[in-house]
Amino acid sequence: MVFLTLTNLIRVRGPDEIWRKRKIFRLAAAYVGRRRNCYSVAVRNVHRALVYATKARKLKKDDMKELWNTRITAACEQHNISAFTLKEGLDRSNIMLNRKSLSDLAAWEPRTFECLAAVAQKKLELDGFIDGVDKKHPTGVNLNLKDVMLETWLKEKK
Fold it and tell me: Helix or strand or coil: residue 57?
């Protein structure tokens, strides 16, 4: 910023204040009235908005986790297997998929999810696992997977 007189430079209290205020006014550009034009009011409103934005980022992550868990649980109920049993069977089969991947498969590729549920069920049957939630052997959709040679693959990984 160019100052024509020395008096104006002194009144502004240096270049740092100009840039600090400009940053606040840019963040307050969408506001209406004094919230936009008056620095002291703009600072308060911008600070409040930034606090809400920070909290919202955490809440968004929590909402997405909840959505993914809901999708996985619903898909597991369709295939008569609990979500814990599915995750345990996939871990024992060395199939490392996170919540987001599993929920996307459950929502958009149900056949693939059905095969994953069958793999998890078969692996837990081979290991003799009893579900801690249901206190019984995992049940699932009995699929004809002999063409895929599933049993030999699962026995190798043991």
Answer: helix
Q: How many CB atoms lie within 10 A of CB 154?
A: 20
- The verdict on 43 and 91 lying in the same domain is no
C-alpha distances in Å from residue 112, one per residue of 1, 8, 17, 69, 150:
62, 71, 59, 18, 14
Regarding whether 79 and 47 lie in a shared domain, the answer is no
Q: Report yes or no: 113 and 77 within 8 Å, Cβ to Cβ.
A: no
Which domain does 103 fall in, by range?
60-157
pLDDT digits (tens, 9 = 90+) for 74-83: 999 888 888 9
Same domain? For 144 and 71 the reply is: yes
Q: Against a cut of 0.85, is the pTM above it?
A: no
pLDDT digits (tens, 9 = 90+) for 122-143: 888 888 887 655 555 545 555 5
In this structure, is residue 2 part of a structural domain?
Answer: no
